[in-house]
Amino acid sequence: MQLEAYKRYETRDPETAEAEVAKLLSPGHLVVRAEDRPRFAALASLADTGPVGIGFMRYGAATTIERRASSPYVGVAIPLTGHMKVWLDGRPAEVRAGASMAVIGANDPLRFEWAEGCDVLVLRVSTAFLASTARAFRDDELPLPARSAHRVFSLARGHALCSAASLLVETLGRYRSTADVPRGLLHLLAEHACSALLLGLAQEGPTTARRPHAAPSDAVRSAIRLIDEERAAELNVGELARHVGVSVRALELGFRRALDETPHQYMVRTRLRKAHRDLLAADVRDGRTVTEIAARWGFFHPGRFAARYQAVYGVAPSTSLRSPTA
């Protein structure tokens, strides 16, 4: 099972499962046909960061879920095995492992049919967090669509969202509890997942012919200063834009005009330099590790960090860590 340390329930009783699902997602009615009850075996895990949660769910037998009340979350269901159906405007749409995912709005009534053998990765984002993060993305040329309606995406189209969910599983799965995860890391993971969801939803919005404006030079200078003064990886591009009072798109255009690179590229380059500095200054006798230092600066995948580091500095990060302090 994914996220074993975060198991919330395991039961063969549909009534118990219905009550537990209400705690994790939203109240609803769970229906299992009499002939399917012997195979019913519900199991769920959820790693909850607060604004964002990532979990794993299965029911074993064919199961129907109907939600009539609104939810405080927008959800994403990514089948890992098997398939399910979700009703869109009164018509069923199939969501199949390896092919598609379903985005579940917060307000519309919901009807899900899980096929037998369907295991699902579930991402949930609180509507309050979604709304606050969306403010940084508001741009005249990129109006966001209403987020109450359910929809089905192909995996190709929802690639960024899948990657964000996978990163949550991979990173939080290393810990026994979210209380053990560094707060800065939790914050970055939540912002990343929320931004990926917003950008996926925004692809459906209409566009206008109005040309976006680049951020003024003082906003770009302020953003550069915030990145340079970070003591750990705490900001993402959306937050950076909010801090300097411009949209993400405007900040990207401003950075390209001033530095010929995006804010993200400048952020990664600066953090890599700081990780290099920390590796050279660290004392292995104090228990410092490459993984710890890399995570501090937002590099959560050790293999990718090592490859990026070697490409820039010509040595493995472990070699820098063992080097005498200059």
From TrEMBL:
HTH araC/xylS-type domain mapped to chain residues: 221-323
Entries under Gene3D superfamilies matching the protein: Homeodomain-like (1.10.10.60)
Pfam families: AraC_binding_2, HTH_18
Keyword hit for Phosphoprotein: no
Organism: Pseudonocardia zijingensis
Alphabetized InterPro entries for the sequence: AraC-bd_2 (IPR035418), AraC_XylS_family_regulators (IPR050204), Homeodomain-like_sf (IPR009057), HTH_AraC (IPR018060)
Assigned keywords, A-Z: DNA-binding, Transcription, Transcription regulation
SMART domains reported in the protein's UniProt record: HTH_ARAC
Name the record gives this protein: HTH araC/xylS-type domain-containing protein
Highest taxon listed in the record's lineage: Bacteria
Stretches that traverse the bilayer: none
PROSITE patterns for the chain: HTH_ARAC_FAMILY_2
